[in-house]
Amino acid sequence: MKKSILFALTLMLAIFFISCNNDTASDNKLAATDANGEDNESVKAQIRKEDSNFEEEFKKGDSTALAAHYTSDAVAMPPNSEAVKANNIVNLWGGVIRMGVKELKLDITDVSGSGDIYAETGTLEIFGADKKSLDKGKYIIIVKLIQIFRK
């Protein structure tokens, strides 16, 4: 079960960041770099902030907030299960939370890329009740940045 939870979380995180979107601009959304892809440090900081927001929402057990990070056409592909389309992702995250996962900790080791495509790699740890470690692992997330229009 531990491996399934870890694998499911890793896949869902990958899908989350690939399809990160919201219809309205907000401070925690990723913004595209300039045409030459030269604002990498800014992008890395935004990715770290997005990770932090995701961890906080996970701690709160808010599957609705977690699902709100996905686009309307996103698909999560948990192991040994059917693909889950965006309108059911809230149920997927709710299931992970009901399985006893209380917290997710992401430790980024690297963010690299340019333009609107970045790869984030790191380690993750999932915790249950009383901060008991349930599993540890590595992850890779492919991030596609979305353009935010500012005034």
Write up what this structure looks like.
The chain has 151 residues and is an alpha+beta fold. It has one domain: Nuclear Transport Factor 2, Chain: A, CATH 3.10.450.50. 34% of the residues lie in helices and 26% in strands. The chain has a 3-stranded antiparallel beta sheet, with helices on one face. Strands 1-2 form a two-stranded antiparallel sheet. It starts with a helix and ends in a 7-residue tail after the last strand.
Features:
single chain, alpha+beta, Nuclear Transport Factor 2, Chain: A, two-stranded antiparallel ribbon, 5 strands
Please describe the biggest sheet, giving its number of strands, its sense, and whether it closes into a barrel. 3 strands, antiparallel
Please write the string of helix (H) and strand (E) elements: HHHEEHEEE
Which class do the helix and strand fractions yield? alpha+beta
Looking at the structure, the CATH topology is Nuclear Transport Factor 2, Chain: A
The CATH architecture classification is Roll
Helix segment tally: 4
Q: pLDDT average, as an integer?
A: 75
Roughly how many Å is the radius of gyration? 15 Å
